[in-house]
Design goal:
Blueprint: H1 9-20, H2 28-40, H3 44-58
Helix pairs in contact: 2-3
Length: 64
């Protein structure tokens, strides 16, 4: 028995709205503090997320 992905109309609307809206990143010092905190807590997902956000906030052209 195969499973198929069922998308809800609100999910599509939310994805389109997120694509249209600009999301401001926190300042780099706040992101670096979050990175250090995640590292101290051994939260690998938090470290990755904070590191990527810090790079994007420091250099907006990255990832485009």
């Amino acid at each position: 028995m195969s499973r198929s992905l069922v998308r809800r109309p609100t999910e599509n609307a939310a994805i389109r709205a997120a694509d249209r809206s600009a999301r401001r990143l926190p300042p780099v010092p706040a992101l670096m503090a979050a990175l250090l905190d995640a590292h101290q807590r051994r939260d690998l997902e938090g470290v990755t997320l904070a590191a990527h956000r810090a790079v994007r906030a420091a250099e907006p052209g990255v990832g485009e």
